Amino acid sequence: MRRRIDPTGWPDPRSGHLESTGRSLPSDIPGYRFNAEVQGRWEETPSARPHNNPAEAALHYTLATARAITCRYALNDVHAAQAHLNSVLGTVCDLKDLPVRVLWANIRLTTTDQDRAAVSALQQRLHSEALHEQIQRQRLQAARDLHEQLVTTPTLALAYWLTQRPDATKDTLESLEELTRQITAHAADNAWVQVSHLLQTFVSDLAADQRANLVRSLAQIVLRYDQPQLAEQLQNIAIDLASASGLGKGPA
């Protein structure tokens, strides 16, 4: 059929309907797709080189636009996806670099009950897996934090172990006492451990004022060996002991 040429030299623009059924559009989950029916209208725009198949160009634009939108929606969000589609396709659009204009398009999306149920089950499983992974990450971080604290504070490690194994408290304390006895008895280079143990035994039966006097005497001895800082620390301890016993500072 010959096209009539108008006096300006341009052929009359063609126009037509957009109609396509049996199409499918992707959802946000691979393998699950929307069923789509397309309707609309198109027309040519004046051009010295008209398109050979403007209807297919209009349909291609419509479906490409639809795919870019529906791939962001879950299959059970069919109404939201359809509303988004038709809000974009409901206005006039001149196709880029083509003498074709889409006047409007409307797409009706449908899904099957079976597909929606499968997607819902998959979403629940993915949510459960993500929640499990989050809990595992939190537990791992808590374990790392606890490990760091236990490594830097050995007494905390012992306390934590005892809280987890209260039934082992007696055996643990006995083991620690035995370890202390072995260090005191067999470590020749740790003779001062024995001295400190003897001092602890000696002062355990002293009254508070006697302990204060003992510490003052130690301060005087340390001072004779040119250790004024240690002597001052001992004097402060003696003051604290005297204050606790209600004797005041007393003679230095």
Topology, element by element:
Elements: E1 15-26, E2 33-44, H1 54-70, H2 78-89, E3 93-94, E4 100-110, H3 113-152, H4 154-164, H5 169-186, H6 191-203, H7 208-224, H8 228-245
Antiparallel strand pairs: 1-2, 2-4, 3-4
Helix pairs in contact: 1-2, 3-4, 7-8
Describe the structure.
The chain is α+β, with helices and mostly antiparallel strands and 252 residues long. Helices cover 58% and strands 15% of the residues. A four-stranded antiparallel sheet has the order 1-2-4-3. Helix 1 crosses helix 2, helix 3 packs across helix 4 and helix 7 runs antiparallel to helix 8. It is rod-shaped. It starts with 14 loop residues before the first strand and ends in a 7-residue tail after the last helix.
Secondary structure class reads alpha+beta
Instruction: State the shape.
Output: rod-shaped
How many H/I helices? 8
Poorly predicted sequence stretches spanning 5 or more consecutive residues: none
User: What helical percentage do the residues reach?
Assistant: 55-70%
pLDDT average, as an integer?
A: 79
The major sheet is characterized as: 4 strands, antiparallel
CA gyration radius, whole angstroms: 44 Å
Q: What topology, given as strand order, has the largest sheet?
A: 1-2-4-3
Strand content: 5-15%
